[in-house]
Amino acid sequence: MSSVLPFSREAGRGPTVLCLHSNASHSGQWRGLMDRLADRFRVVAVDSWGAGRTADWPSDRTIQLADEVDLLEPLLQQASDPAYLVGHSYGGAVALKAALLHPHRFGGLALYEPTLFALVDRIAPHEVDGIRHAVAAGSALLDRGDADGAAGAFIDFWMGPGSWAATPADRKPAVVQSGTNLRRWRHALFTEPATLADLRKLAMPVLVMTGSRSQRSSLSVAELLLRTLPNARGVEFTSLGHMAPVTDPDPINAEIARFLDEVAR
User: Fold this and answer.
1) Position 153 in a domain
2) Which among 10, 18, 58, 237 is least buried, having the fewest CB atoms inside 10 angstroms?
3) Which CATH number belongs to the domain containing residue 44 in this structure?
């Protein structure tokens, strides 16, 4: 277990819902969901390694998703039995890894486009070429000392051309700092050893949410999960994209709340 206690936000009482954020974000992205659930759930939103107010990854060894799960262990020890996981993008991949490592701890997962690219890369690598090229472009910019450009390449890939230019100036420094971890994220997501056979053993209910305007890279993962997980169902949000839990949280949070109310009943 990690000796680092991650920063977390907490609200409410009841069964534990652990919320995991996307890349270049932090636990604050789940404030709206916390408000929506706090009258009947204990909601804990966590900053992952090097995000928000949690310490950076301390090792020279390149991080794996299992290390992100290990960071959560102190919170899992305080969680209800079962607990529930909510994850977006990278946080969704971490949630899946947590369920694979500790399947009996969790009663359900609500995932918005989890980016566990290794699953698709092994069988249809062209489907994840988009994110592969975006990370390569961002990494090249980092090598030239252009952290702002690297952040822009990443944000524009997920949110569309011009999104970085339109980002308020006061929000950019945190994203630029986070974006220096591009290679680390890629390694964790593309080298994850979990297999489709492993996923077929997960019996808990899983909600897999997608946006109709999302990139093929993330949609391909969601589609594969829906074909593989034995107790999964999908919900698509029309006209929303990969970053909808941050940019348009209300409909996503409402769907998560409906799912949790059902599985925790």
Assistant:
1) no
2) 58
3) 3.40.50.1820
Measure the CA–CA gap between 139 and 135, rounded to whole angstroms: 6
pTM recorded for the entire structure: 0.97
Interatomic CA distance for residues 141 and 62, integer angstroms: 20
Which residue in the block uniquely carries the two structure tokens 């009947």? 40
Do the domain assignments include residue 130?
Answer: no
Q: Domain count of the chain? A: 1
Q: Which tens digit of pLDDT belongs to each residue from 169-185?
A: 999 999 999 999 999 99
Residue type, 175: V
pLDDT tens digits along 215-234: 999 999 999 999 999 999 99
Give dist(CA 93, CA 64) in Å, integer: 11
Is 248 part of any domain?
yes
